[in-house]
Amino acid sequence: MAKIDTSVGHLVDMIERGELRLPELQRRYVWPATRVRDLLDSLYRGYPSGTILVWETDQEVPSRDLVVQQTSSAFTPKLLLDGQQRLTSLSAVIRGEPIRLKGRVRPIHIAFNLDHPEGPPVEVMEVEDDEQPPAFEQVEEEGEEPAEAKSLQERLRSRTFVVGSNALFADPRWVRVSDIFKGEKTDWQLLKGLVDSPDDPKYDLYAKRLQRVRRIREYPYVMHVLERSLPYEEVAEIFVRVNSLGMKLRGSDLALAQITARWPNSLQMFEDFAEECEKVWFTFDTGLLVRTLVAFATKQSRFRTAATIPVPMLKESWEKAKDGLRFAVNFLRANAGIEDESLLSSPLLVIPVAVFAVLKNRQLTHAEERGLLYWLLMANAKGHFSGSAETTLDNDLRILFRGGTPSDLLDALRQQVGRTTFEPSDFVGRSPRNPMFPVVYLALKQGGAQDWQSGLNLSLTHSGKWHYINFHHIFPKSRLASEGYETSEINEIANMAFISGSLNRALSNKEPNEYFPGVIEKRGPEALYGQHIPLDPALWEVANYRAFLETRRSALARTLNGFFEGIAADRSVAADVHDLIEAGESGGLEFKSSARFNAHTGGADPKLEAVIAKTISGFMNADGGTLLIGVNDSGLPVGIQSDLDTLTRKDRDGYEQFLTNLVAKAIGVERCPDMAVSFHKVEDADICMVRVSPSPKPAYVTDGAERRLYVRTGNSTRPLTTEEAVAYVGERWR
Questions:
Q1: Sign of the C-alpha dihedral computed for residues 466, 472, 474 and 480 taken in this order
Q2: I need a labelling partner for 252 at 20 to 30 A (CA). Which of 48, 214, 304, 687 fits?
């Protein structure tokens, strides 16, 4: 590979003559004017600015012009592989040519400060965010800054180059950079608004500074030239490696560098905290930690002002960030059932949770906890940060720092995504990369889905390589591909089940009509039903694959809708029955060792059934809650087998039917939809979970000849007197 010593001026001339063009594989011009400003400042100071990579070839390769005016060259042009953004910017400014992009013509106006301070830069460089900036940025976007930061006018006076405006160019201290290069004006014409005559002592200083700007044309670049003999495919690979595999710094990396340069040992603090999170299965890179710190310091998430945050504020904000992130990790694990960051569609989801927790001093009401949980999981499922992430996060932070609630966050989310329900069509062509996929896992996990081989409930934290949970293609990829199905159909979420890695490997390329009968024989139909897989054997045939997808899409949509309805109705909902038992009884959670079996008499006891009905009605008349049957007052899982032995149908379906009939008879059949029954294995004991929604009207219990109103207060359920009931009904359901 040849190396040629060249200069900015020579490269700009090559562009003008059409001797440098772009290969078709080059991305479009994307630099905002602020990046052009910073490049000029670096060249003016003689700072390093990278190299240029071109390919000179005789092959017929698709190419195109740069987005500045070029003439046609009689010679075979060189193709610019690395340096497009820099050289396009320099060509536009030095030649005074506008950028022509997407049918729009925009000049890049950069102003030079004749009165700039001597020495190294006084104003630190603004750091771009991790998301791609807009192609044009015509005005200075100073962003929100700490109160101690300099005023805008002070910042401008301390800079050598800025993005120009008409108001700025009206000041004789600011000269349009293009006017300096084009040579249509003499030094005197450029300076006469600032000095009285060429004999003015400052004239010589300003003239030397103008000459220094013009010497940017002489700035040396090394141009690497790839060999003519290279095939286009290899050149494309080189292009990808140069632009992708190189360690290009993100905005968070630069912000971290700016912070650590002023705050000694802070990097070690960030890394120590990241290690603390790693111990509980959450892997956060330092970029997220820095962004959270910046959010607390500036009430927005962008990095551009990181270098201006005073060190005392950095330290104070870091303490808040740690406090908030610790709460967020615990909230994700214990309340949302999110066991590690892989279940998040974006790690940025933890920042609003952390901020809200700190603003509330970690003292959330039941309604706030429920609302935050609902927003977190819905934002996760809807890919809240899949678009302009920083813009979206800034909007969330604006809501919270202005005193907003999780309900306000949810309103903003609805404006962004539209409906917050799920339909079968949402799953069409959606792969495990879709944000819905981890929430499908959480919903199935909460519903008691198990591995088909071990019978273990789903968890990402199982010990031993044989128990790691994988997602498994129910219909094998190779078989579907041989039948001509599209990749998008083969990899649909509806074709995925969650099973252990050992079983996944054992099943290999078997079709469901081969292995489902064995799963049912060993684990029962509940194993398939627990992951909402249709039990109709006809749908297990490859020939009926599209019918299988339609059926399971509908089932998964119902599952997600029910999952979120349960969160909205139940303040104490957790993603795992183990978490509930560990949390202990509360206003929203009650344990009962049995629903009808009396250990003293050895038979069914209607009085125990009445207690169950009263507990359920108490939740209905309050704010909803969860009843765990088969757990004693000490939190020990004793199971419901004794209850099952008293029933005609001694299985889970029979038990659910018993509870439904009990509620229908004691409270009213119209209240049955206000409860959801599910079953879970805890230490080999079957536990029944009854999730109860708040009732839209009073739920009275028929007890003999009386009808009483029960309400959940504290950790108990109590009946109200007639006077209390009248007052309570009038207040709650007015």
A1: negative
A2: 48
Of 210, 162, 204, nearest to 183 (Cα)? 210
Total number of residues shown for the chain: 734
Check pLDDT > 90 for residue 59.
Answer: no
Q: Which amino acid is at 218?
A: E
Q: Which domains does the chain have, with CATH numbers?
A: 2-116+160-220 (no CATH), 251-420 (no CATH), 426-569 (no CATH), 577-732 (3.30.950.30)
- Check residue 129 and give its pLDDT: 56
pLDDT in tens, 583-618: 788 878 899 999 999 988 999 999 999 999 999 999
Mean pLDDT of the chain: 86
pLDDT digits (tens, 9 = 90+) for 428-477: 999 998 999 999 999 888 878 888 888 888 777 655 444 456 788 999 99
CA atoms 327, 332, 337, 343: torsion sign: negative
pLDDT digits (tens, 9 = 90+) for 149-187: 446 677 788 899 999 988 889 999 999 999 999 988 999
> Which whole-number Å values give the CA distances from 442 to 19, 222, 561, 564, 626, in the listed order?
58, 54, 13, 11, 18
Report yes or no: 54 and 226 within 8 Å, Cβ to Cβ: yes
Tokens for 21, please give them: 């063009």
Distance CA 643, CA 218 (A): 90
Q: Report the amino acid identity of residue 296.
A: F
Secondary structure (3-state) at 314:
helix
Closest by Cα among 493, 495, 362 to 434: 493
Which pTM value belongs to this model? 0.58
Instruction: State how beta strands 78-82 and 104-106 pair.
Output: unpaired
Q: Which positions ≥6 away from 728 have C-beta within 8 Å?
A: 621, 709, 711, 720
